[in-house]
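Practice problem: predict the structure.
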Amino acid sequence: MEAALATILILILELILLCTWKVVNWLWLRPKKLEKLLRHQGLQGNPYKLLVGDMKEYAKMRNEPLSKPMNFSHDISPRVSSFIQHSLNKHGKNCFTWVGPIPRVIITDPELIKDVLNNIDDFGKSNLNPQAWLLAPGLKLTRDVISRASFGSSYEEGRRIFQLLKEQTELTLQALLKVYIPGWRFVPTPIHRRMKEIDRDIKASLKDIINKREKALKEGEASKNDLLGILLESNQKEIQEQGNNKNVGMNIEDVIEECKLFYFAGQETTSVLLVWTMILLSRYPDWQARAREEVLQVFGHKTPNFDGLSQLKIVTMILYEVLRLYPPFINLARTVNKDVKLGNLLLPAGVQISLPIILVHNDCELWGGDAKDFKPDRFSEGVLKATNARASYFPFGGGPRICIGQNFSLMEAKIVVSMILQRFSFELSPTYSHAPYSVISLQPQYGAHVILHKVDI
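Answer:
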């Protein structure tokens, strides 16, 4: 009996020691080892701080600029990406920061950026931000469009689901901005409980829509002419081609995730693009006039059509420049899945990679001395010519993981901008305060106050 008890106690002690070792290794030994490896290769950064890393400094530097508006300027990096810019100024263009116990290497060299974006096997998506995008204020139009495109006749239910996704993303942001404590997301706080409640509601609603569509398909009814219908029909066809093998194709959980992606990829990018386009065209009436003249020349006062969109050279230049100065997302994060060589760097598995879009887009060494000016004509000969074929312009990401909503977003933006220009001229309201801030996506903190004037036809 005593021998058995002693054995149990030894096993418990070994388990405690093993758990203690894992925690110590995760919180201290491994971060210090990774820090040594990075410094040995010439990368500089702040010394690792137990548990929190740079999160306290990041939160402080993020919140200070947001306390008041800025003068109207396109040099917004000190406001929306102050900590990363501070790190680059302090430690050099390729340096590292700390997200808790995880080192994050900042990459600004276009050639290295290109390698990261193209290599999806070695550089996976970061899972630190489970919900990566958030709805821009003031423009429900794009949400309505993508709801109809995604769910067709189930449009109203789709709108409700997208509204829940918006709320869930806002709550996710609140949770992410809390102090970094491992396992905190499992604590049943009011925010975490509401997030789980929303997740259950979204999944139940999507399952109901999907099950009804799948039943209709099995009964021989034609699929709906929307994204969900096309997705389900394609999935069913793949399963049938494999002899009704249930192990191929997508299961219902996969389809649910795709439906969420419809919202984020197709709606979010367009919303913020339209908001900043309205603001900048209000600020630069000469470009607004040139864009209106082009729209009227191509479409007159008729509804814009797909065939005419390719003729909108000036509108396209304006949208590209807006995306350069005010990209929907100011940063891309990737995870190093295995030890990998990137340029002259040997990056160990587990390290994060940060691609600061906003800083690269505003780099005078890459774009010239007017990098912080609004000059749409820099894109008069296309993106490749403007960038000299370098990876210095990637508002939608790049490589195999480029945002699937890119073409949809640009097409929708061209149509909406054209329709507005046909009917209205616009200017910034005296109440407008220039205050870009990144709530996952880049938004005007105090809204986009624009005054519309009817254009005489």
